[in-house]
Specification:
Layout lengths: L1 H26 L12 H10 L8 H26 L6 H28 L3 H21 L25 H7 L10 H15 L3 H6 L8 H7 L6 E10 L2 E9 L4 E11 L2 E13 L9
Antiparallel strand pairs: 1-2, 2-3, 3-4
Helix pairs in contact: 1-4, 2-5, 3-4, 3-5
């Protein structure tokens, strides 16, 4: 009975999540209430998740939901939240914050019920074996998105999001400013990262990237041409994150590198990296 009551209440919460995402999609110029699995492997994972239907398989059913699927969804929501732009995606971020709070509550409640049900070593072993099987299928599927498993959640339960209607921030944004102040810790990180770009030190560059950020744009920039100078040409605040643009120049090319920095447990890290432009110098005009 406890498992049925738990699932019944949580199904209602999940229906609210689906409804919120469905209403948000048309605002993003996507089809509402349309969902397709990322791949056949995702379908295989979901089919396996739903296999335990017998009365004696309540433990397996709960393990699949509360120890495999929901922790994965929680990590996926958190990863999306960290990468969502706080300036023009507040509605999406608010939905994600709500989903994250609910999923954390669901997982904790599910663990309580599982602890109540797994009263013998045999049941505990069954739960572990089923969890390992489903985790293997989920990993093979690349997560529910098919793009790979999201980074592990930070140890802190704090959600790095600014969703409040801070009127003082809005007033400040309408005022022109000569330059944005750079936090001292970030200033040091930017200096080290810029030096790594100019020195073509790919390993040093990679150390400043947040989990899941591809170093490929940096490789493209570093391998493009001979670069002899570096300038930080733009810096702006986007909520708790910072947008930074560098200009690398040399005798045979100029490269513009765009990055978005976010604070985390290990300090400031690059949450997005892109090569905005690679230009070859214009040939000198012939003398007349």
């Amino acid at each position: 009975l406890s498992a049925k009551l738990l699932l019944g209440r949580h199904v209602w919460d999940l229906a609210q999540h689906a409804d919120a995402f469905g209403k948000r999609l048309p605002e993003l110029r996507a089809h509402a209430q349309v969902s397709e699995p990322a791949s056949d492997r995702v379908v295989a994972f979901m089919d396996a998740l739903e296999e335990p239907e017998a009365q004696q398989q309540t433990v397996e059913r709960l393990v699949g939901v509360y120890r495999v699927l929901k922790p994965h969804l929680l990590a996926s929501y958190h990863d999306h939240l960290v990468r969502a732009n706080p300036v023009y995606e507040p509605p999406t971020r608010r939905i994600l914050v709500c989903c994250i709070d609910d999923e954390r509550r669901h997982i904790a409640a599910g663990e309580t019920i599982l602890g109540h049900l797994c009263v013998t070593p045999a049941l505990t072993e069954r739960a572990g074996a089923w969890q390992r099987r489903l985790e293997g299928l989920l990993t093979a599927a690349g997560g529910v998105t098919g793009d790979g498993l999201p980074p592990a959640l930070p140890e802190s339960n704090d959600v790095p999001v600014e969703t409040s209607d801070d009127a003082r921030e809005f007033i400040r944004l309408e005022k022109p400013t000569a330059s944005w102040p750079i936090p001292e810790e970030l200033r040091a990180a930017l200096g080290a990262f810029g030096d790594s770009l100019l020195a073509r030190d790919r390993e040093a560059v990679a150390r400043w990237l947040a989990p899941g950020v591809s170093p490929d744009p940096a490789r493209e920039a570093l391998g493009a041409a001979t670069l002899t100078s570096l300038r930080l040409v733009a810096f702006a605040r986007l909520g708790h994150q910072r947008l930074v643009k560098w200009r690398l120049e040399g005798p045979d090319a100029s490269v513009t590198v765009l990055s978005r920095w976010a604070p985390g447990p290990e300090g400031w890290r690059v949450a997005m990296l892109d090569v905005a432009r690679i230009e070859a110098p214009h040939p000198a005009l012939p003398r007349r």
